[in-house]
Amino acid sequence: xxxxxxxxxxxxxxxxxxxxxxxxxxxxxxxxxxxxxxxxxxxxxxxxxxxxxxxxxxxxxxxxxxxxxxxxxxxxxxxxxxxxxxxxxxxxxxxxxxxxxxxxxxxxxxxxxxxxxxxxxxxxxxxxxxxxxxxxxxxxxxxxxxxxxxxxxxxxxxxxxxxxxxxxxxxxxxxxxxxxxxxxxxxxxxxxxxxxxxxxxxxxxxxxxxxxxxxxxxxxxxxxxxxxxxxxxxxxxxxxxxxxxxxxxxxxxxxxxxxxxxxxxxxxxxxxxxxxxxxxxxxxxxxxxxxxxxxxxxxxxxxxxxxxx
Length: 309
Hints:
21% of the residues lie in helices and 26% in strands. The chain is of the alpha/beta class. It has two domains: 4-113 and 238-308, FAD/NAD(P)-binding domain (3-Layer(bba) Sandwich); 129-232, FAD/NAD(P)-binding domain, CATH 3.50.50. Strands 3-2-1-7-18 form a five-stranded parallel β-sheet, with helices on one face. Helix 1 crosses helix 5. The two termini are 15 Å apart. The relative contact order is 0.17.
């Protein structure tokens, strides 16, 4: 049995693990995918304090993980599919293909967000179609002429990183200009790249493959672009549907839809269960705010456990 079980190993979950372990709590962190969450897919984080020249997201998250491990955090690679409140002081996490349930005195949801999926004919099994800004998803032979769908910061980061490898990068933006949704620093960086073309006031209409491999895309203005890879960065969603019926309140409001509702102490509707980072309501999507949540929640966990002892 652990004092705290953390679901998710992004910036908020890793920070929670570091601080919980530092405070002497027996801590387990459960992650179904790669360490670092979406921060690890960012080629260069420029607004995290302490790195004047910016830092590679994967490198930063690796350092978080090594610190948590050194302080005693246990890590388990598993997909959590169920959550049970066994008693007022005990919770069980059920994992996919479960052989040994994870039991803890408190639980922290740090599951982050996932990129929205395309719902176009052929998009389910098309090779060359990727979600999020990470270039490492794609084999090098796919990085010739590429497109990025979206115009927020993740799309800007994708375009800048792809420009290092691809001959041509098309940024497809349905809004009149990038400055409505993208940071000014990224916009300036993109403007200096001769192989990046921004196409405003357009959206994706269809994707066409050859031998199930992306061949070209068609925009809603009729323009066809021959591309070998498409990186989709069109917003993010909280995957909390599996928590239906668990007793945890989920938001249905615009801007917070699907996110876990917490109070000022990051506590959910169930005492002893907390939510931090992008998966909670009313959160600003930054690495620094995720780190803030991960640090702050540990004090609330300590207070809760002290009250139950």
